[in-house]
Design goal:
By secondary structure, the protein is an alpha/beta fold. The protein has helices at 14-23, 45-63, 73-86, 99-105, 117-120, 123-135, 150-155, 159-176, 195-202, 212-223, 244-255, and strands at 3-8, 28-33, 67-70, 92-93, 110-115, 141-146, 183-186, 207-209, 237-240, 262-263. It folds into two domains: 3-95 and 212-263, Rossmann fold (3-Layer(aba) Sandwich), CATH 3.40.50; 99-209, Rossmann fold, CATH 3.40.50. Bound molecules: D-glutamic acid.
Length: 266
Amino acid sequence: MNTVGVFDSGVGGLSVLRALLAELPGVRFVYVADSAYAPYGERTVAEVTERSERITTWLRHTHHIDALVVACNTATALAIDSLRATHPDLPIVGVEPALKPAAAMSHTRHIGVLATRGTLNSERFARLRAQLESVASSPLHFICQPCDGLADAIERDDLQTQQALCERYVTALRDKAPGDMDTVVLGCTHYPFAADAMAQLLGPGVTLIDTGEAVARRTRDVLNMYGTNDTAARAPVLVSSGDPTMLSLAARRWLGLPTRAEKLVT
Ligand code: DGL
């Protein structure tokens, strides 16, 4: 049986784990929430790289993983090249904001992108955006909005702050693209857990996109697992560098998982 490590700065990557469990029920997943160091979005490249490296090494030594999913846009943007260089023998799947599917869907060509400051300021994001703009048949407008504090509010399950920040950032997006935005990319794996609030504020004419399912399909390809797989899903191992109870509660609330999280020390 394959074992796949999955990590995020905290509970956000559970939105990717949900898609992975649906796509690959026969796989054993070990999920690490680095909640003691969250949020990553306002940390330096060196800090995010160091945490990503420590967690990957721990997953390899302790759980002998066959592949790694970096279920965090910020860690992918800031650290995946370095992880691939230090672990050339480990298949690594990253997550990046779904600009390409958004460009394929948008009729108005005005696309909102909600992500962390770290992701939006990264070279990797600039390259992805420039590449899509250069091949687009008609001009594409990406309206980018850093959402400081939102991942942290989701991490703490603080619904009041989440609602206030969703209002602030949707208003900011609207001010930059009055009236004509029809697609919004959720470019942080925490944000699908605030998608209902976002959708309500954006209204029915705007489609929200995240990357969980695409990442799960890519992981299936990487593991070379084709055809149907009707094995009953195994409960994943859940580990947190912060408070394991918060991770257990989030996994129960959002994924219906009964698993109790353990404490990660690394
Ligand atoms: N969930 C993460 C992402 O996809 C990081 C959020 C954060 O820690 O700032 O970017």
